[in-house]
Amino acid sequence: MAKILIVEDEYAALNSLATLLKEEGYEALKAADGEQGLASALSEEPDVVLLDIRLPKLDGLTVLQRMRQGYNDAAVIVMTADTTSSNAIKATQYGAFDYIAKPINFDHLLLLLTRALEYRNLEREVRTLRSGQTAAKTYPAMVGHSPAMQEVYKLIGRVAPTDTTVCVFGESGTGKELVVNAIHEYSRRPQGPLVKVNCAAIPEALLEAELFGHEKGAFTSAVSRRIGRFEQANEGTLFLDEVAELTLPLQAKLLRAVQEKTIERLGSNQPIETNFRLIVATAQDLDDAVAAGRFREELFYRLSVVRICLPPLRERREDIPLLVQRFLSRSEKPVTIQQDALDRIIAHDWPGNVRELENVIARAIAIAPGGVITADCIEFSRRHTPAEAGWVGQIPHHEGFKRTIRMVEAELLRSALAEAEGNKLRAAALLGIQRRLLYEKMRDHGLR
Q1: Are 47 and 74 in contact (CB under 8 A)?
Q2: pLDDT tens-digit profile of 357-377?
Q3: How far apart are CA 117 and CA 210, in angstroms?
Q4: In a shared domain, residues 338 and 298
Q5: Which of 49-53, 181-185, 211-215, 415-419 shows the lowest per-residue confidence on average (mean pLDDT)?
Q6: Is the domain of 92 the same as that of 41?
């Protein structure tokens, strides 16, 4: 019988989980605070620990760290209502098997327990993610509690302490550079340089010298020796953005540098060793590029050791309110946003992703009357209007049925009132409803 330790300070939740686990055939142990949980984990040697993050006496992350320092190899599933990127990365980095968001979905929890027990039985000694990593302080934290972003946080936590090459995929504006910053700051070499190169922004004729450097006299304008980005990244991280833009000859030189960790400056045949960790990013589908002959297959395999795929904003609409609040908090003046404005933002398809959202919010803050952002303050780029994209494509399917219907209803009311120039009788007639119902709906949605 597998032994499960539950560390939870909410009495009802603690007993509810214990009852569930006993019904499923597990032996359930209980602890109501961090100190008691740590003592039980070290003395009782459970197979799995269900660990809350917010605990009295000792918080969950501290308990997790001290468990690992005490050579406890239980699989740990972190339970938290605060699924921020920092907590998610740290929990995984400190050795958590997985984590689950509150309120707990029992079916999901039972599935995680099955996987955790299999993991423990097969790889009890695999504890490579150590505690004590330097917290990331030099980059704006990623925002998002959606399942897709939780998977991103987990991958960052697992891959950061290694020197494995990482390829970050994602549409423009999804935040690929934030992922790179996080991997570097949580890596074994956070004190080393993080050198960034946008391969699409540097002319082809200059890119080779930019990457590999050159000796004096290597070409007409080479009046002195130049140290390239590979050498600059020694003992640190080299980030090549838009790597798919490299020409085939440059791809061949990159392949050699990755394989041998040596480079040669232009105008020299002297190999130079450099110890760098490579991260690349692209918005293109590299599989298609390989099939079309635009990207070397052997380089593709070298760069795609670990893939981190960032979801577009339209596939994680539940994160939009969090992002909006983040951008509002940067305002120099107090500003609030009305629900109808937020509903309109959530309903947009965001082809420019988080970058487009940030620009829209910046404009809204600038023109908001009295520091209150209304739906009229929200303006999208003309090339991304709902009429051009098709109104069905604007429906936020990920928000759930009731919230989706509410947002569509609010847009219908605004559209009818605008067409009727504010005449409520005409607006009701356009919608085919009674004027009394129109008034009720307007009050419900806060429309004037």
Answers
A1: yes
A2: 999 999 999 998 888 999 999
A3: 50
A4: no
A5: 415-419
A6: yes
